[in-house]
Amino acid sequence: MPELPEVETTVRETAPHINGRRITGVALPWEGIVREPALAEFRSGLIGETVTGITRRGKYIFWHLSGGKVLNLHLKMSGSLLVKPSSAEAGKFTRAIFYFDNDTAIHFRDPRKFGVIRLLDGPEKVTGRLGPEPLEGGFTRKFLERSLARRKAPIKAVILDQNFIAGIGSMYADEALFAAGINPQRRPGSLTPEEVKRLHRAIRQVLRSGIEHMGASTSTYFRPGGEAGFAHHHFKVAHRRGKPCPVCDTPLEYIKLRGRGTCFCPRCQPLK
DNA sequence: CCCGGAACCTGAAGGC
DNA sequence: TGCCTTCAGGTTCCGG
């Protein structure tokens, strides 16, 4: 499931192929992927534009265009961007294809059709309310401490809230909470300053590690070259229900928390 | 503002 | 073999 490390990997590994290149065509095997504007305007606004930069904010990808607009892509739960030669045909799950002037195409593959593409005047429309980037300066221990204070939902639900911190999803939330020794059901207000400090460090550490290992390919996510990432090989709890805790060998517990599969170690992450 | 649940989707995997 | 259920979960919308 694409979260910050998977999206960052996608940006890094697509950019060298398309940055500075001109978009020569668009194909939409599933038109429903385009959220806005209407299709005719979408196509005409895109074709002929040069990509002048590629950025990420949270889980959102932006292709900055020479005319001033931005193409916004969101992989949601099952999307990948794949770099292909122009001649490559659409696969069964290819929902959109962007063709460039260097014999390169980007295929948006998305089995479950949750993915979204928008052509916008600027990123603000989708990033306006997002919380800070966890790997940048705005995400300080103080910020975490202060903003957790008034939250009542379970800690995992809070760090999944994109308006609280941008980029964390269910897998890296489980990993961060394990690394910090905090039960996912704990109330934010009950965390000690020491625990908040550990959580702050853990969030940054698991995301950095995820990027270093080029993202996690737990089911449908692939890197732009079609290869799997390696991050899931380093997961300690995420997607490991029933398996022994890597620290204490206790079988990992599985619960549904706010509809999200959640794995944790009942011994290393006790519910006080 | 905050919370929790439903809805959106479809393939894979497991049980019987 | 085949049918049924469960699981995967990012975001938005809605009611409380």
Report on the structure:
The protein is of the alpha+beta class. The chain has helices at 4-18, 39-46, 124-127, 141-149, 155-160, 170-180, 193-212, and strands at 23-27, 34-36, 51-57, 60-65, 70-74, 80-85, 94-100, 104-109, 116-120, 253-257, 260-264. Helix 1 packs parallel to helix 7 (193-212) and helix 6 (170-180) crosses helix 7. The chain is elongated, with a radius of gyration of 20 Å. It starts with a helix and ends in an 8-residue tail after the last strand.
List keywords for this structure.
272 residues, alpha+beta, five-stranded mixed β-sheet, four-stranded antiparallel β-sheet, 27% helix, DNA-binding
Query: Helicity range of the residues?
Result: 25-40%
Mean pLDDT: 93
The total of helices stands at 7
Number of strands: 11
Quaternary structure of the protein: single chain
Cα Rg: 20 Å
Number of structural domains: 2
**Structural class from helices and strands?**
alpha+beta
Bin the strand percentage: 15-25%
Unreliable segments of 5+ consecutive residues: none
Gross CATH architecture of the largest domain: Alpha-Beta Barrel
